[in-house]
Task: inverse folding
């Protein structure tokens, strides 16, 4: 029996925006993936990140953005795992917990350029496929990743929207409702997030 293929899309999602959702949507509709789990990364308690909302507020926003679409779902799997979170550990945990599913890693081209710096990246490449979507950025993809059989490059739309741009825009009093799912925008607005 064919296992369900789950794409794991990691991020702080601070806030989740239409760029994130469009990439996830593209992958489940045009890629060989049954579902995308948007894995909300908790922040390191030892690093006070300015403007990084509480883990559960960010998770709630991903829930709001995805609840009407069964192929994309929010995941808090890393909330209960030891800190700091290493992708290799999260993948091992999920594989053990869900033996009926096949997990695939989703990342932007910018992350592929630094994959060789990840903890146990060789183990990830040995056991999992990685789907890479295009990003505009500096730097070169290391030769060892260019024609790797486990790295699948997809022709998804290039999304040059960032959470940083949205946070800065809100701080400047701009109305950025069309950059977020309407329920996320309403929540951010009601809670007065990112205004300071």
Result:
């Amino acid at each position: 029996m064919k296992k369900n293929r789950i794409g794991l899309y990691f991020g702080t999602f601070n806030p989740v925006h239409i760029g994130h959702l469009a990439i996830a949507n593209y992958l489940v509709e045009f890629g060989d993936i049954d579902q995308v789990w948007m894995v909300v990364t908790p922040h390191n308690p030892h690093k006070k990140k300015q403007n990084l909302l509480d883990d559960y507020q960010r998770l709630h926003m991903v829930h709001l953005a995805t609840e009407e679409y069964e192929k994309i779902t929010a995941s808090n799997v890393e909330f209960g795992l030891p800190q700091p979170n290493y992708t290799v550990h999260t993948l091992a945990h999920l594989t053990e917990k869900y033996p009926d599913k096949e997990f695939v890693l989703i990342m932007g081209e910018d992350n592929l350029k630094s994959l060789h710096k990840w903890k146990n990246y060789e183990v990830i490449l040995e056991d999992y496929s990685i789907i890479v979507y295009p990003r505009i950025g500096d730097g070169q993809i290391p030769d060892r990743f260019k024609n790797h059989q486990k790295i699948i490059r997809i022709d998804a739309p290039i999304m040059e929207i960032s959470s940083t741009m949205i946070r800065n825009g809100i701080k400047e009093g701009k109305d950025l409702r069309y950059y977020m799912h309407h329920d996320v925008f309403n929540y951010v607005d009601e809670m007065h997030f990112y205004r300071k």
